[in-house]
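Why show two proteins at once? Because comparison is the fastest way to build intuition. When a single record is shown, students tend to memorize it. When two are placed side by side, the eye starts asking what differs. So, the first record is below.
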Amino acid sequence: MTTLNDKSQFIWNTSELLRDHFKRSKYQDVILPFTVLRRIDSVLEPTKEKVLETYHKLQDKVQSLDPALCKASGFSFYNISPYTFRTLLDDPKNLSPNLKAYISGFSPNMRDVLDKYDFNNTIDRLDEAGLLCLVMEKFNTIDLHPDTVSNIEMGYIFENLIRKFNEALNENPGEHFTPKEVVRLMSSLLIEPDKDGLSKDYVIRTIYDPCCGTGGMLTTFQNLLREINATASIQLFGQEVNPETFAVCKSDLYMKSAEGKEAENIYLGSTLSNDQLKNMTFDYMVTNPPYGKNWRADERFVKEEHKRGYAGRFGAGYPRINDGQLLFLQHMISKMKPISEGGSRIAIIMNGSPLFTGDAGSGESEIRRWIIENDWLEAIIALPEQLFYNTGIATYIWIVTNRKEKRRQGKIQLINAVDFWVPMRKSLGDKRREISQKHIEQILSIYSSFSEGEYCKIFNNNNFGYRKITIERPLRLNFQATPERIEQLKEQTAFINLAKSRKKDPQVKFHEESEGKKLQKQIFKALSTMSHKKYTDRTKFAKLVKKTLTTANLSVRAPVRRGILDALSQKDDDAPPILDSNGNFEPDSDLRDTEKVPLTENVYKYFAREVKPHLPDAWINEDILDEKDRQVGKVGYEINFNRYFYQYEAPRPLLEIETDIRKLEEEILGLLQEANM
């Protein structure tokens, strides 16, 4: 086992032992905790004797043994049981109780991590199936010591295993583990404007990931900062909702240093509904939230916090329930440092949905509006497809900051890096491509130069905004009391309700409904006496209908009279416009339309130029106003990324297409002849 793939595949093959005794959905309940346990044991085994010696020496002499035992182990955790992973196998008959005793021997901080796996239950199930010894022997043959497998490499193995579990079950389609080169690109984009400051003495920086998974983003970012300044103090913070990946992240961070401080800054729970780092701000933030995953479990908490306005995390609004990506971005923005304290920079990777989903006034649009109008969106980078292990969809890096350089203020940079990739020698799930270091440097160069070119476009903030106006056209009708139109009265709600009663008393209900049916017949009879003359004046025809009903001694309420007019009317393009009681044109809802007017244009000038020449009788509905600026129309923001980089390709000449078709037909004919020989 020389490569990471070999080690990952070796661990994955443990599932073959479980096939007849565990459901596929339960394989990870065995494989992940044993992988973690084997790695921890590999770390602690060299100092095992020293820890036991220290324990027996100080057991009854000091109140707290933790400091001395941690010092003896060389880490912020230890194990005081007499066993190691290897020695447990010396007594196979008592393996189950001994393994439980071994796990109980861990220090409280590490035991808390292992408890997330419900280890005792897993041990019992394996023992009952006669598999415990086989699984232990399998894992005992693999070396997972950090000297052999680094923290970054171990993170890759864990993520690869979790990816395989999800693929096997077709679960968690919205969770995408971020390749290290993508994390390096994201981190480099955040660091690029800060390189000079980061190289100085006594640098302290904080990094936060609200969806930290196994911690790959945090550690990759940390290592990149250390490449710039080896003496810098880099503090990691994160939160993860999945207990298993949380345990992987926390246990691995415990092994990064003797103090294990970084692990103590990783928290379990839903970031959206249970922010465990309240009131904290950070220098840098990176994340890859789940795509297209609903946030219904957090809905009540999100909407309650939204009511707090901008004093909470979700003041700008909330997206539709089936995609919470923009909620995570809002959450991160709430954790930006004030500019007086140096400000913050954010890199978040999302799919295409947050760019354009949602009409003007929708939650998505309002969130985009809030971000752009506050001048926080610095750049968006379109990435190649097929970069991720379990999805081939298009993805984008958003760079968000409250401390833009002067040259970037009021502007947004779009970088099209979809062709910046090299094929992988061997695919990993859906991942068939990767971004080379050369490509990373090329993207950074385009970003830093901040000048337009083939792969870069720069826009003013308001270029992405529009004002959605409602275009009305007059209602044009004719009226006629023909038998066919009178028959349509049966479909009018107000007319139908005449023969319905809400009374609970059966006798009263029967009486009211009978009287209603009687009135319906009388109305039909009265309308049938009218001439079949066609009218285009609604007021005149309405008076005629009223007179007809009065003559028949029928008292009819206004809703029913309106229903009669609706039934007896028909659209007529040649009729004059219908006027309301104020003498204004009444709009035809069927002809109602909307126009998106760029914020860079005057609404009325746009209307006069683009609409009025084609629809002379149209007008702008000035009653529909934006809730924030109270101007005509609703403001919306969207970033149609592909449109800005679209390049027209002329269709092939017909003669060339015909030639190719004839050639293909000849090839098919040849194949058919061969098949018949």
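Second record. Ask yourself what differs from the first in the token line.
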Amino acid sequence: MKNLWSDKQAKAIIRHYARLGVNRDRALRVYTSQLLGNEPRLVLHGGGNTSVKTKMKDVMGKNIEVLCVKGSGWDMGDIEPQGLPAVRLNNLRELISLDKLNDEDMVNAQRANLLDSSSPNPSVETLLHAFLPHKFIDHTHSDAVLALTDQPDGDALCRKVFGKRMGYVPYILPGFDLAKKAFEIYQKDQNIEGLILLKHGIFTFGATAKEAYSRMIEQVTLAENRVEIGKKIVFVKAKLPKKVASVADVAPILRGLFGAAGRCVVMDFRTNSRVRAYVDGKDLRRYSQKSTVTPDHVIRTKPNPLIVPAPDANNLGDFAKGAKKALDAYQKSYHSYFVRQNKRVGFSKTELDLMPRIILVPGLGLFGIDGNSKSAAIVADLAETNVSVITKCESISSYQAIPENDVFDIEYWSLEQAKLGKGNAMPLDSKICVVSGGGSGIGAVTARAFAKQGCEVAVLDCNSKAVRAIADDIGALGLVCDVTSAKSVNKALDRVAAHFGGVDIVVSNAGAASQGRIGEVSDKILRQSFELNFWGHQNLASKATAIMRAQGNGGCLLFNVSKQAINPGPDFGPYGLPKAATLSLMRQYAVDYGGDAIRSNAVNADRIRSGLLSDAMIENRSKARGLSQKDYMSGNLLGKEVFAEDVAQAFVNLALAEKTTASVTTVDGGNIAAALR
């Protein structure tokens, strides 16, 4: 592993934070924490921790010794000084005299000694950092180190690799007991440069930030070199179907299992040669069902992943049945695990949900699963780490995790569960929404509105620049798509299903206003308008419905129709006729797929500043009627201009109206002539 320390960068960091009132020690602590945190082979998503012992002024202006240690909720990769809360060091050190200290009292003692009471909770391993005398202390969950510790003879193997430069700590749940044990081992040999925590990770320490960091890189490199000696071909491949189904076909089926259990989820698919070798191994059930490679993963991943059958492209029905059977067995197994462990701890715990967080699919790869794309990606990252470490373990000897009792203790440990946090739920959390014509106008505003409601959004548009801009702005998946092409639509929605796991809501919005007297307009213009303003909706709705039915949990189709569908205007037949057909299309989907719990509704909007109703068109229409632009745009019963945001809100409202289908919501400020009859 490369040592990324730079004297030049370190000095720049010191100068930068000095201007913000941060001392040299904390500045360097931020610097090397970020170096460690941005190396995924060392640290992932809140894992690991770092500290520095320094001096800071208390409320009385006195310089006192403090421990600045990583706070809960911060990732080392982007940590800032406020993510290293300062705790009165001497008061922490006094705790070592205690024989016992429960978790609640430990957390209370740490918070009571914060210099700033608004700081985040210090790490659960704060006392370990406090008891050791070194100025800078680094802790990571190095893949290579875990590959050595997670062996039946992990202790002996580590001693052979690292020698007397490191101390060796047996697995103990993080907290007071681990801190005392680590200090006890350090006391036996105060020349050691760090600690190997079996089945947990590695600590290194030093008098300077550079020394502690460099020792981490050096020791991890020793571990990596040992791992490289292992077997190159680790897993024997199992027999797979001649043609394995695509991710786009498999993901909605698996996502539907969660929906049937009352959970709406987002999925993150991962595959590469290493993942494939792992999931395709004929002994997959043996090595994948031994819990996580480092204990704190379990709060996000559950102890074990779900294994489903390899999906045969020619028999997805059997795959769906096999996946359901596998899930049923998984849930029974997890419940049995909880019952026997809860009995062990005096029936003091409440069972978590029975659903897996990782699914292994032979022939394809793996899925990380959670309530949104960000957290699903974290789960998938951890799953890939498990694959990597277990592969390395199996290349040396065999993988061995911590015992079940210890797995349960950390999975149901309140201090670990607290790390997950529970944000405010949004109305459409975990729903996956597709918006066509989402690069501009009503579509862009609608995409933004659904994102604000908690949806994962896929934006479709034929304008590549526009779709990238809005997708980047709202954190959506942006796809170039020509809705007049069924092939383009199918490709785009397959991408959505593979990326998020499926589709729940479709806002079929793409369109353009073609003009001309109906008896005089060319066939070409009329047919082009039908391709976009009717067939574009049919192409999108047809593919989306197939995905929704594969999920088996319903869905919502939303169509952007127009007053032209109801109240035709002169010279707008090429636009109004396909829109009228689209209105009927909406109702037909409601009729044909209501039994599948797929709702179909429409929004009828009028006089909205957008790509269809341009500023030039507004000016011309206003002049033709002898009105100001303001009076023209507000020429409705309410006397108020209607904006794209109002249309977007109508789409959102219809998506939330779970018992409404075949309905048209008019958004025009009131126009009796255009009202539905």
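One difference worth noting in the second protein: The CA atoms of residues 150 and 644 lie 57 Å apart.
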